[in-house]
Amino acid sequence: MFEPVQLRTFLAVAQTLSFTQAARRLGLRQSTVSQHVRKLEEASGRRLFARDTHGVELTEDGEAMLGFARSILEANERAASFFAGTRLRGRLRFGASEDFVLTRLPEVLEEFRREHPEVDLELTVELSGTLHKLLAAGRLDLVLAKRGPEEFHGRLVWRDRLVWVGTERLRLDPERPVPLVVYPPPAVTRARALAALERQGRKWRIACTSGSLNGLIAATRAGLGVMAHTRGMIPPGLVQLPPRTGLPDLGGVDFVLLHGERDGAARGPAEALAEAILAGGDRLQLPGQNT
Question: Pairing mode, if any, of strands 55-58 and 90-97?
Fold first, then answer.
């Protein structure tokens, strides 16, 4: 009933919320992407996306289709791999940013290891800026991380927004510096938060610095300050702060996959893991969060 190529296109649009970005990821024309989505909507008899001049959003039926599409594609890949009789081997050095500590990335990696038991997967969890440096130095084969606002390299996994988060009880005094809970340099969220406050002319102070997401969450839950965080990945116990706080807009953020040198034994495993992450990119957000 559902064509895998159409499901793959649907997932790309759902994760990037952009027909243009989905076309770039898949190497297709935008008209082809629109055609695939239209045919899938005809096959399902449901409208999967709501489109207007402001952007693209999943409908309720579109949200339901996410899980079905992912399951169908995963089953299709398992069958293809089984009958092809090829098994991936080698060492794969994979880096993921701290943002994914609380998400379902472990499930994606567990499934990858189950499908490719002869691949030695080495995981490095670090700040996005640090991962970019490790990749450039040849110490990683594949990286899942944020990219800067003026950067265009990497395969887009999904697009989101950075927002200010804190506890529901937190009240900011407009006459006093904004207390910040931040990663150390070269963190993307730290740089974005400081730049936005500087542009606004708002005074700030560092209330807590930690290289661990759990450390930042603990400090923010304790009411020490506010944190710049991805809207679709807001940790439990924290909320997006309302506009009345007067804090500046932080803009969008892209999560991308970046490959190292593609020669050698890691090439096949890196491509396979990249495809698994692209197929399950929506699982890397926290349940119940708005995208």
Answer: unpaired
C-alpha to C-alpha distance for 11 and 15, rounded to whole angstroms: 6
Q: CB–CB of 109/122 below 8 Å?
A: no
4-83 carries CATH number 3.30.1780.10:
no
Under CATH, to which class is 88-157+254-284 assigned? alpha beta
Q: Contact at 8 Å (CB) between 48 and 37?
A: yes
Mean pLDDT of 88-110: 87
pLDDT in tens, 196-247: 999 999 999 999 999 899 999 999 999 999 999 999 889 999 999 999 999 9
May I ask the CATH architecture of the domain 160-253?
A: 3-Layer(aba) Sandwich (3.40)
- Cβ(188)–Cβ(130) under 8 Å? no
pLDDT attached to residue 291 = 39
